[in-house]
Amino acid sequence: MLDVNIKKEHMKTLEAYRAGLMIKPQLRHLFLELTLRCNEKCLHCGSSCGDVSSEELTAQQYAKFLAEVKGDFGTKDKMLCITGGEPLLRKDFFDIMAAAHELGFRWGMTSNATLIDDSTARELKRVGMGTISVSIDGLEETHDAFRRTHGGWQRAMNGIESLLRVGGFKHVQVTTVVTHQNIGQLDELYKIFNEMEIDSWRIINIEPIGRAKQHADLLLTPEDYRYMFEYIRNKRIAGEPVTYGCSHYLGMEYEREVRDWYYLCTAGTYIASIMANGDITACLDIERRPEFIQGNILTDRFKDVWENKFEIFRKNLSEENEKCRICAEKCRCHGDSYHSWDFDNHEPQVCFKDILF
Q1: In Å, how far from its chain's centre is CA 343?
Q2: Where are the alpha helices (DSSP H) in the chain?
Q3: pLDDT tens, 112-130?
Q4: Which of 35, 73, 199, 264 has minimal Cβ neighbours within 10 Å of its Cβ?
């Protein structure tokens, strides 16, 4: 465990750095939600994706937008994060990403991998995909039930094998959403992934957002949380490439122990997102409310929106309620993550005070 005094100094520096970001944000990650269509209907989906119809930008509109972004921001230190829905459902997916690649953007993708075979993996390599995170949410029966997709686990595993067989990608990651029902399967999943040549295993907890709100039985108990974080920490101590996601302040004991750096919600300071219809927001996991839409790339120049709007994301949520205001950890937590904040009751839906610290 890293020395507590060193952690305190790091966090103090991070607090000052965050204050600077509120004044002068730095665009680093631009998320493109290519579609809300998905061939799975996951019980936890924050965007309620599935067999839905919605407006989608055309390949030409994406190409024009990305050229504009390159002109205004450049491509250095910028990463396109491609998501959905399932991005590969778009028939013009490779046209869009070829244009991004030709413009010089680095990009990675989240996918359920059920549509990936060797041919698709070669095409992904051709158009410059550097990283991919594939969702495997339990052993076969559990995964398929959670994603409401018969045969989904096997197709996803085949997709991962195709990516590894074709090779040449910077990072192939598996992400597992931990629920109250699958938390007992972590050891068995580790054995499976350890025999593969994936680069890392990212473990994240189910969040009380989107469809997950309808399935309270899947949410983690305090005991589940403590087990999950101990499990990740022990694997990392053993030198295994296991990590927790970016969400949530974990307290002095677990910060820097279960991921490479400290908690910092960068929605609206590092991160911006373009929804499938062109709407501009911060993190795509944040509740979809009208006040969070900052503009639309079909009518607004993204640079103007980034520089002159986004105020709602550039503040301390910890000032929104009395409990957070008087908390001794508020200078490190800042009210926790935007995506799990209750904007009606002005309080965090996920807080690890009295659970981890």
Answers
A1: 20
A2: 4-23, 59-73, 93-103, 118-126, 140-146, 152-166, 186-194, 222-237, 302-308, 322-325, 330-333
A3: 999 999 999 999 999 999 9
A4: 199
